[in-house]
Design brief:
Elements (H helix, E strand, L loop, with lengths): L4 E7 L4 E6 L5 E6 L4 E5 L5 E5 L9 E6 L5 E6 L4 E6 L5 E6 L4 E8 L5 H8 L3 H5 L10 H9 L7 E7 L4 E5 L3 E6 L5 E7 L5 E8 L8 E8 L1 H5 L1 H31 L6 H12 L6 H11 L4 H11 L1 H45 L1 H4 L6 H46 L6 H4 L3 H14 L4 H7 L9 H4 L16 H8 L1 H4 L13 H26 L1 E10 L15 E5 L4 E6 L9 E7 L10 E6 L16 E10 L2 E8 L8 E7 H4 L26 E4 L5 E4 L4 E7 L4 E6 L4 E6 L6 H12 L41
Parallel strand pairs: 21-25
Antiparallel strand pairs: 1-29, 2-3, 3-4, 4-5, 6-7, 7-8, 8-9, 10-11, 11-12, 12-13, 14-15, 15-16, 16-17, 18-19, 19-20, 20-21, 22-23, 23-24, 24-26, 27-28, 28-29
Helix pairs in contact: 5-9, 6-8, 7-13, 8-9, 9-11, 11-13, 11-18
């Protein structure tokens, strides 16, 4: 019986350039050449969702990585230099951030190191849940609020490591906040592997020594022992960073909801009055025109035309309702969302300040109490500005209500309509209130026309929500404010750290951006300090790369890196010669750089295991390794081709047990590295192990297999052909027996109702084939896109 059961086959419309299995679920993420990110399910390779390329986020996907719990998918975009964190449940961005260089590789790992301090922290209930009220759900988008909370994830520390061009390497705790900026590594990153105990980071880069020569592939092992020594402190600090980052995202979305609640119709009064000024022939000001109507009950013919023909009774009523509805919504959002989020932000920053004061534990990690104090002050300024907006909304609602009520009655009288008795009552106090409103809001401002294209700014809430650097058109009037004057005249209080600074002329958006910038700067210092503590322990030039680079993305090219959590080993799989991929080399090093004295290097040859009559002791290598990935800590999944590959020769999917490679532990120690030479110049001295696979292999019929993505936890693999469009999916721990084939054939005869165009056509398996390969069954809707054997 052929090993591995084929459970799906698919011909895709676009060339696939990245594949990544979810660590916890039977889902595989794909990225294609047009910039689309797709999620497919193992069963029938059915598409779950697709995220099309976007002008704002970017179109050139260059890396994929899953969070260890499988709930978040991260991908990097080269054209915009952004990293997007996407919900696995739906194609929506939950969080994104910019980086300084295009991402070429990303690795998302979970810390498995245990200690009593960490265990108590993991098991303890988050105190913020006990002390802070639960953040209210965002209106009309309650799911979004829950999704933001997904960003926090599990309390156990995980880290997203990003590698890019020009030696760019950054580490993000929980995928959210940067905790290390690594320097001192040359070249463009091809692979990354962070040890689960945080003791070392292995990096493979491509260094372009000169424009005319081929690039040099180099292995680095970086000592990150500071993170390992201070792991409990790093975890607590990183958790706080993530809380803060999540709250900033929540405040940003709350502000977006406020902007959506504000409607353009609210600007109608300003534009109508501006048009009235431009068209009227009299020299009387607009303010005087309305004052005459208020005092004498009579309006000029021009004002009557404005009110009755342009504004209209119906339009005035609609405008009044819009203002009341919009202002009420914004008011609720400020009180329930902005203030709640800001108070939670203050809490977590204050906790962080307390941690920074414990210098014995946190000073080495770069936590700066003074910087955190600046961040707390910036949050206080934001809360003050939000309260100012509340006051403006409150006074505007009262002003507009009285003004519209008076104007509505006046317009009804102009049209000689019946005025209800309850509307007709107007006290002297009401008249004074309207007169004050007209005096304050109905002054013509020529300088405002040059700036905003209007003479009036009756509506004063919208200016706070504009995402502009300009000052407020109508800042709050602080004249006569005794507290404000007292602070301005007091030298000591004006500079007091106990008082939050106040920015009367600035918008809410401006103060929010300032707050975000200060918080980002405050949390940047630990990343710089931790990054500078990372130092290079090993630098090993491996081989010369190919000078004529083809268009295939680097993810589909060896080297491949793996971290064995149980034995704390780093593995690197690579081949040296692009032209004749005869041997695969396995480099293994201990994650503790002090224990990696030996180079742990072996070469693996694949003997002829299809034809046992050939002398097995022959030194001839029959198979070349096309691609290789670690399946689990004990097994490597390989795609092989015959060295003398002829037309019609099939490629092979196989499982290579490490136990068959590391038979003699002393063998790998035989090699002594000459550090002055590249590894490919010493290849003849590298110990070689010839292996003969037994049962764990399968011929891939009618497919020029080139790349493989595997998941040992879910025991699945996905093989991609050289044309980058044809995929096959296998369950790796199940044999493809005849009984299962019959069941599959019966299922195929059952009509499928309501399937989408991307549904997989299950393969029809040929019983009589010695190797159990499947016949091609291409999707009819996509058959014209590509041939299977290209």
């Amino acid at each position: 019986m052929p090993a591995f059961r084929q459970v799906g086959e698919k011909q895709l419309p676009q060339e696939i350039i990245f594949m990544a299995w979810s660590p916890k679920r039977d889902l595989i993420a794909l990225a294609n050449k047009v910039g689309e990110v797709l999620l497919h399910r193992l069963a029938n390779f059915q598409r779950v969702w697709s995220l099309p390329p976007n002008e704002n986020t970017g179109k050139e996907v260059t890396a994929l990585a899953w969070r260890p719990d499988g709930k978040i998918l991260a991908f990097g975009l080269a054209d915009t230099k952004r990293v997007i964190l996407c919900d696995a449940e739906k194609p929506e961005s939950l969080h994104s951030f910019s980086v300084d260089a295009p991402i070429t590789y990303m690795h998302w790992m979970e810390v498995t190191e245990e200690s009593s301090v960490l265990t108590s922290f993991y098991n303890a209930e988050d105190e913020s849940n006990l002390l802070l009220p639960k953040l209210p759900a965002l209106p009309k988008n309650e799911e979004k609020s829950d999704e933001i909370m997904k960003l926090l994830g599990d309390v156990r520390l995980n880290a997203l490591v990003l590698g890019g061009s020009s030696g760019f390497i950054e580490v993000y705790a929980y995928g959210m906040y940067k905790i290390a900026t690594v320097t001192g590594v040359a070249g463009s990153c091809l692979g990354l592997c962070f040890s689960s105990d945080l003791k070392s980071l292995s990096v493979i880069t491509e260094v372009q020594v000169s424009p005319d020569s081929a690039p040099e592939i180099t292995y680095f092992q970086l000592d990150t022992s500071l993170l390992s020594v201070y792991l409990p402190e790093v975890t607590r600090m990183a958790r706080k960073f993530t809380h803060i980052s999540t709250l900033l995202q929540y405040i940003k979305l709350s502000l977006t909801c406020m902007c959506e609640a504000w409607e353009e119709i609210l600007m109608q009064m300003d534009s109508r009055l501006t048009k009235f000024v431009q068209e009227k022939n009299t020299t009387t000001s607009v303010q005087d025109e309305f004052m005459q109507l208020l005092l004498w009950g009579k309006a000029s013919l021009e004002l009557q035309a404005l009110l009755m023909n342009q504004l209209t009774v119906k339009g005035l009523k609609k405008l009044g309702q819009s203002i009341e509805s919009s202002y009420s919504s914004i008011q609720k959002l400020v009180i329930s969302h902005l203030q709640s989020g800001s108070e939670a932000l203050l809490y977590h920053l204050s906790e962080l300040k307390g941690m920074a004061s414990w210098k014995q534990k946190y000073e080495s990690l770069g936590l700066d109490a003074a910087g955190i104090e600046d961040a707390i002050t910036a949050v206080g300024s934001f809360i003050l500005k939000a309260n100012e907006l509340l006051q403006v909304i409150d006074s505007s609602m009262k002003n507009f209500k009285a003004f519209f009520r008076w104007l509505y009655v006046a317009m009804l009288r102009m049209s000689e309509d019946h005025v209800l008795p309850e509307l007709n009552k107007m006290t002297q106090k009401d008249i004074t209130f309207v007169a004050d409103f007209l005096t304050e809001h109905f002054n013509e401002a020529p300088e405002l026309y040059n700036r905003k294209g209007k003479y009036f700014n009756v509506e004063r809430v919208g200016q706070y929500l504009k995402d502009e650097d300009d000052d407020l058109v109508s800042p709050p009037n602080t004249e006569g404010n005794q507290w404000f004057n007292f602070l301005q005249n007091s030298t000591h209080l004006k500079e007091s750290p106990l008082l939050f600074p106040y920015y009367p002329p600035k918008s809410l958006h401006f103060v929010k951006r300032r707050m975000e910038g200060i918080i980002d700067q405050c949390l940047q210092k630990p990343a710089d300090v931790i990054g500078k503590s990372v130092h290079q322990a090993v630098c090993m030039p491996l081989y010369k790369g190919s000078k004529s680079e083809d268009s295939t993305p680097r993810l589909f090219k060896l080297p491949f890196m793996w971290n064995d959590k149980s034995s704390n080993l780093h593995y690197v799989l690579f081949t040296m010669l692009e032209s004749s991929l005869s041997k695969i080399y396995i480099l293994r090093r201990h994650t503790d750089v002090s224990r990696s004295a030996n180079n742990g290097l072996l070469a693996v040859d694949f003997g002829n295991f299809l034809n046992n009559s050939i002398n097995e002791s022959s030194d001839t290598s029959f198979y070349s390794c096309v691609d290789a990935h670690f399946y689990d800590d004990e097994t490597i999944t390989v795609v092989l081709k015959e060295n003398a590959e002829q037309e019609g020769k099939e490629r092979i999917l196989a499982q290579l047990p490490l136990s068959s490679v590391y038979v003699d532990e002393d063998q790998e120690r035989e090699f002594s590295l000459n550090s002055s030479k590249r590894l490919d110049e010493q290849s003849d001295d590298i110990p070689t192990r010839t292996v003969f696979l037994e049962s764990q292999w399968r011929v891939l019929e009618n497919m020029k297999a080139q790349y493989v993505a595997v998941n040992g936890i879910r025991k699945v693999s996905c093989v991609l052909s050289s044309n980058l469009r044809h995929v096959r999916v296998f369950e790796m721990d199940v044999e493809d027996d005849g009984e299962a084939e019959e069941e599959e054939e019966e299922e195929e005869t059952t009509p499928i109702v309501g399937g989408e165009h991307d549904e997989l056509n299950l393969s029809a398996v040929n019983h009589n084939s010695m190797c159990g390969g499947s016949a091609e069954v291409a999707d009819e809707t996509e058959e014209h896109e590509s041939s299977l054997d290209s």
